[in-house]
## 1
Amino acid sequence: METGLLNLDVRYVRRNQSRPPATPPSEGQRRKRSPRPRNSRSAEEFGPDPTRVAPLRVAVLDRDSGFLLVLAKRLDALEWEHRELAPAVPTKRIAAMAIDALIVDPAVLGPRCWSWLERLCRARPRFRILVCTSTSTVTERVRALEMGVDDWLSKPCHPEELVARIEAVVGHRRRPERNLEPTKIGEVEIRPDQYQAFVAGRGLGLTRREFELIELLAGAGNDVFERELIFQRLWGPAMARNDRTVDVFVHKLRRKLERASPGWRYIHTHWGIGYRLAPEAISAFSVTPLELEPEDAPTSARLAA
């Protein structure tokens, strides 16, 4: 009887394996596409992301259909496994589940929510517990955290924030070991232990995302990193058409590198493909006419023309 009850109460949600066919490029788009350089590599050739971990497994105990629908779509996009639970499932059975995180709204449990949470925390589950509910007081939040709950989030909340909190409470025990050895590229020293880059001991003031970008490009050696692959490695899901996010961050990083190390050129653009990080020393007289505005060109260059 108990097995049948559990089968009825636990509903697994699997991601949809079917994907819409990709729209083939038009003839004009094919003509505009730049030839691929010899030293460029696609996502398949770069191989699996060494920093990527296995998809998380999440269980949700909530009855808000709108919240569940939005959250399910976001978790599907991340390819996380997730399931919805019913309040009738015993806490001992939940504590034994092979999941990474449990999202629970105490309002579903009613007056017994505190005894339910206490029993679950006392069972010392291996997963993390996140409370996500509409109304709460400081006393309730403190009581839950002291009881053993890992995080508390108030509704309405954005699914991105909830996902970030799940990753924060789960990530410290799933995150792979990072190489913390500094890397020297031209005049720039990349320090993974400080999430920062330096020139002559002075930090470039990189944001977390800008540091991840320079670290990613530096790891590719002299190869071209495709824009779509950069987006997947730093932001996760597939890049939408005409998305300029990668270009904006590359522009910001390039400007900071040029200000800190004006005698070097670091990031090279391969139009229609991606970017390459390779330090090249430049001299005061090595600027090509194509890099100058017509009115800024030297007199000798105008006379020669």
Note: Confidence is low (pLDDT under 50) at residues 1-19, 30-34, 284-305.
## 2
Amino acid sequence: MKVRQTFSLPGAVALAASVVIAQSPPVRDPDRNPSQSPAARPRPKAKDTEAWPAGLVKAGETRFVSQCGFCHGRDAAGGESGPDLTLSQLVADDVRGDRIAPLVRAGRLDGGMPSFRMSDDEMKAIVAFIHTQAKKFAELGGGRRTVDPTDLETGNAADGRAYFNSAGGCAGCHSATGDLKGVATRYKGLALLQRMLYPAGRPAPAPPKAIFTLQTGPTVTTVVAPVVAEDEFSVTVLDPLGQRQTYKRADVKVNIDNPMEAHFTQLANYTDADMHNVYAYLATLK
């Protein structure tokens, strides 16, 4: 029986994953060694305390976003491959560009940073923007907003392997020598943890399928269709023409084959130790 289309909220599961991996506000422990975690280390103290003109900062932001933002983030607080410049010791030691400018013009080829040709005015604008961002983040207090891979390296790889192969049930779908071979080379740090908890992104996980069992007299037919949305009352799928069709669960016999279901279930089962142990194990698969 065809009914009106309905939609579920799969984003709620992603929200659950983000809650799991979100950092809590740092608690200051006077007896704790700051070297235990990069997140616990204080921000480097800036030598340059100049208040840069707003127009210059804005011009620097425009150029920074276009030329540096992909690696270092649009706000200079870390991006795809570049570090958080608001926490950089070199930036903290810089005075009016005496450290930043030579590095930008020379590049750092061993770190994947190309050299940039800029006029003195363009360089001054970028320096103004970086310093302004560093000062802004320092005034916010608390820890930094980015996650360094070393923040996550608290688990035991041997225990993680044992959990992966037994209690966690991960080995039922995954193999260290199969689909996960080299996973720690493809994903690092937070990206690896996110892929472990909620495997979205690229490559995308296999989408769920609805398996309908239809009986006409003595004939039993199985129909498989990609799932668009589902809840406890209905299932919406795409028909062969690509049109959405929604069916009440009470009116059809349907099973949902969702490769992600085990990950959803596991989110509620992980302890902090289990999660970091499995992460430590996956980090060895290079």
Note: The domain at 207-258 is CATH 2.30.30 (SH3 type barrels.).
## 3
Amino acid sequence: MLDGVMLLWFVLAAVSLLFVAIDIRNTPESPVLKWGFVLVTAYTGVVGAFLYVLGCREPLPGLHERYVAARWRQALGSTMHCVAGDGVGILTGAVVARLLHLSGITEVILEYILGFGFGWTVFQALFMRDMAGGSYPRSLKMTFAPELLSMNYLMTGMLPTVMTLRKHVASAEDPTTPNFWFVMSMGLLVGFVVSYPINWWLVMNHLKHGMMTVRPALADAQARERVAETVMNGMAHKGPHVSQESSMSRMSMPTDSGHAPRPPVPVMALLSFLAMAAGVAIGLLT
């Protein structure tokens, strides 16, 4: 039965990945978040495709700005960005750990270092440096704490899931088998769910961005005309206010909110490490 479930999972994952990779080209989202949705769909299959359609895909031409303005979609975009980047490093660490015959805490440390390292220095700071005025050092500084919190809760959900499944799924530690990739997919999927609340908190406190809208100048002007027409038709009261500024002006680093997060970031960081430690303990004890 497990073999049948895995076969169905991978078939649906392939179809979902193909759909998202083709369809997202027409979505007015930033390039890094487009790649993020493709990667998350590769990790989580049909779930990733469902989240793309529900959270990012433009329902009608010109409505992307209003559609993604909802707080839960902003948090979804933030979580997706975290899991996409960290997942590359985590999966690389899992494969390298198998090749080096590492296990237990040693493997966890390697996956954490590679996951956080790639997610922070590349997928967050490098790809989003324009949001920090083009300064990579400033981007590194501004994205460190948000990435740390996201990564810790991602690992909190992923580690016990992977550790538990490996004890019950044959060959789940061998990267040359589909069992390995199925277990890692399940781990990243659970990690996505567990890290969603902290990303909601980060977006709410303007420490991370969520979804964005990026359009060419002409398309942006046309989109604003359509939004204005929608407002005139009496639909404005049904959703968040739509800014009449250029879509590109929405791409600014979200850390200058003018108020201190509550609880403070150091407290949230301590709680995240405690949560991750609990996840590791659960995985080792099950």
Note: Confidence is low (pLDDT under 50) at residues 234-253.
